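Pasting as-is:
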Amino acid sequence: MNGERERVLTAGVALLERAIDYTLGSLRIVTPPMLCRATPCAGWTMERLLAHVTDSLRALNEAATGTVTLGTKALDHLRTARRLNRHGNPALLVRDDATELLGTWAATLTGELVSIGDRHLTSPMVAAVGAIEIAVHGWDIATACGEPRPIPPLLADELLDLAHLFVTPADRPHRFAAPLPVPVDAPADDRLLAYLGRDPAAAGRRPYPNGHST
């Protein structure tokens, strides 16, 4: 691997690590009674959101090896594990998966292409896209818990630039809802959330005059 490829991969992994660290903080808030709560992801309960995050973490873990197998059954896994877990809290299992992912990517030495279905992406690109999804779902989780945790400004600013590159109309509405309008001078985390179809006011922030938040 040449120096430039190594630098780019290291930057992508560092961004993913920061996103996971943020989301781990949100997962620590989750308690079993919260599993039936609605989330900012339309139609998804907390349990369903945690299952989706598990799918994403597993896919990213596989990506570090070069190939992602689609179609996991995380919800069934979480429910089974919940029955076996005396605490009955699948968020603990998601935290374990997130921690394992950090170790896997930290040890990644390849900059080769990652196969996801019929698509082929570079490792830094996969890490960046993963960082966007993991961080925003960390915000979803905290918001559903009723304890808003703003995405750190520097992280949000970097993720916003990447979101404009990687999130396309083809990703909507399957992966992300339609973007919402916010002022151009809104904080980076508000602009990131709005671009990915979330209303920052859901976290209790003061609405903008146009109905969104500040």
